[in-house]
């Protein structure tokens, strides 16, 4: 089972356990994660902590199985559901938090970061794009300068950067994240869920961005980026 679930005193801990891929997710494990989130909320949990096994949060999407935009479309649905659940969600992050891992982190309400940790949105290395919802969340939680740094130059930021720039709300390990979750459990549920609605407004649709997204996912550059990733070489992009 790639997603482990444990509930104690109103707090559900979901652990991504695909350590052979540094906890990168394929479609099957993404669906299992979504089902685990639904089960936690339906079961009455008051807070949820998302983490990864053996020192890594999530290294991204499992590109050995990522073939087309359908995975990204399903991912968007799962992320937006996670962001909208009416309970407090916390990402307990260490090690790799890249690509899809970053998307999971920004879908959560709060982030507790341990050292060492590395953060990236490496779309420009792969020839693909993330949805506008993700860009909006990354920009809001990291700040626009750091977001542009990661998205446009494939920069890798550190746990110190996450703390300095306000991406992390607390520093520490899984125990620190669980302690934060337990502090949220006895608070007013309607206040928490209503406040989340107010802070989670979805950005308006952008036709130009949607067109650019479609071009990127239909491009020769995407094929080259995925091939280069599998062959462990630097891609050669042509802009078409």
Write a concise keyword list for the protein shown above.
alpha/beta; 7-stranded mixed β-sheet; globular
Structure description:
The structure is a single chain. The chain has about 240 residues and is α/β, with parallel strands linked by helices. The protein is about 50% helix and about 20% strand. Strand 4, helix 3 and strand 5 form a beta-alpha-beta unit.
Give a short summary of the structure.
This protein has 240 residues and is an alpha/beta fold. It has helices spanning 27-42, 69-84, 100-107, 123-126, 132-142, 144-153, 159-164, 174-184, 189-199, 207-217, 220-231, and strands spanning 3-8, 11-16, 47-52, 88-98, 110-120, 157-158, 170-171.
Please render the helix and strand layout as text.
Elements: E1 3-8, E2 11-16, H1 27-42, E3 47-52, H2 69-84, E4 88-98, H3 100-107, E5 110-120, H4 123-126, H5 132-142, H6 144-153, E6 157-158, H7 159-164, E7 170-171, H8 174-184, H9 189-199, H10 207-217, H11 220-231
Parallel strand pairs: 2-3, 3-4, 4-5, 5-7
Antiparallel strand pairs: 1-2, 5-6
Helix pairs in contact: 1-2, 2-3, 3-5, 5-6
Largest sheet: 7 strands, mixed
Number of strands: 7
Shape field: globular
> From N to C, what is the helix and strand string?
EEHEHEHEHHHEHEHHHH
